[in-house]
Amino acid sequence: MSSIVIDHVSADGTTLESDVRTSADLERFFTDESFRTDYDVSIADVPEGVRAIPVLAQVCPVAWANGADVYVDEVDATFASALEDVKETLCSMHDFLEGGTLYAKRTIDADPDAGGESGLLFTGGVDSTCSYVRHRDESPTLISIRGWTITPDPADDDDWNALRSRVSSFAADHDLETAFLESNMLSFLAHPMLLAHYKRHVDGAWYSSVGHGLGLLGLCAPMAYARGIEDLYVAATHWEGIDLEWGSRPDIDDNIRWAGTQCHHDGHELTRQERLDVIADYVRDEEPTLELQTCNVRMDGNCGECEKCYRTAVGLRLAGLEPTAHGYLFVDEDYHEIRTALEEGRWVLGQDERYMWDDIRERARETEPTSDAEAAFFEWLDAADLGDLVSDSSPPLSHRLLRAGARNAPAPVYNTVYPAWTSAKSGLRRVRPGR
Length: 435
Prior knowledge:
Layout: E1 3-12, E2 15-22, E3 35-38, H1 48-51, H2 53-65, E4 69-76, H3 77-93, E5 102-108, E6 117-121, H4 126-135, E7 141-146, H5 157-173, E8 178-183, H6 185-188, H7 191-198, H8 206-219, H9 221-227, E9 229-235, H10 250-253, E10 257-258, E11 261-266, H11 272-285, H12 307-318, H13 334-344, H14 351-364, H15 372-383, H16 386-389, H17 397-406, H18 411-426
Parallel strand pairs: 1-4, 4-5, 6-7, 6-9, 7-8, 9-11
Antiparallel strand pairs: 1-2, 2-3, 3-8, 10-11
Helix pairs in contact: 2-3, 2-8, 4-11, 7-17, 12-14
Protein name: 7-cyano-7-deazaguanine synthase (Queuosine biosynthesis)
């Protein structure tokens, strides 16, 4: 029988560690690293059943993909119930997921001190800034996580330091607290092997398409318990009417809960352009110098030349703001550059971007252009076939052959060869979520 066993969950001050054992058929999906997460608050007094949540949040989707059962010594009863709800959603969304059962020697009804606090996963992008504006009366703790788009690799130190500095500055300016978490959740999992087995079933990667809603929120559990955070918000990327297989959705995130904390998928009723409208109203009423950070290329500001920078700048224009006042160097001549880049396929675009450009197009149809260049671009966009701008989501044959062979290859061999091969072959492009 396929199984995953959480051997122990230990807390040493601010550091959480756990070892995992698996049945032989699942060994390939895990590396030899212990699971580890570092917090900036002591978790020594957090019950073991709550400390188990971060590792369970990472391994359960892998178990469900293989019909495996998961065993743990102790788990918070509220979270155990939440896992059943999340499993139901993920299994209905991905037909390759088979499900499985969580077995615990003990379930506990933890009784945290009622803190009445709230928290928000925050990067300073459009989505998370909109969520801050919507919930600013709660003075949410701003939570930033290193481990997904910014990895624990020393090569990402500059990006992490830039994010920490920016979020800390924003928090200081708005009289807010911060929480910074660092985890090896993706290097603890054998992510290349997960891609080899499941990439053909999902539109994106494993974590974005399956694991990140449960995974990122679950990482926060010990910290939220220690800080008395009762409401934990994660900003929506998509909105009503977008039917994409994405690991963070209302029917996932709104079901995630543990003793003392309820999670919320925030802003799903708003399109990206409507979120920019919320920000624009806030800028005009309260903070005229607010800057956003959405760049796909750098973390210490916006490059102003990538697809996401241009898209955000156009959205700001449509919301009645001048992009140059909010972090984006943008002039009318850039409209021609955007059109040319889209027509020539310079940017690798997926279904996400198609929906977002369509959202911009809908707003442009009801907006009076402010210049001839803007009018010309909006006229072109109105007639453009956005489907033609989306890249073929099928990986190259060489990638497919490598992954097919990997399903039967020794896991250590594949986990070593695949990242080096793809980096040399195609120069993998990092895409940051819109939060």
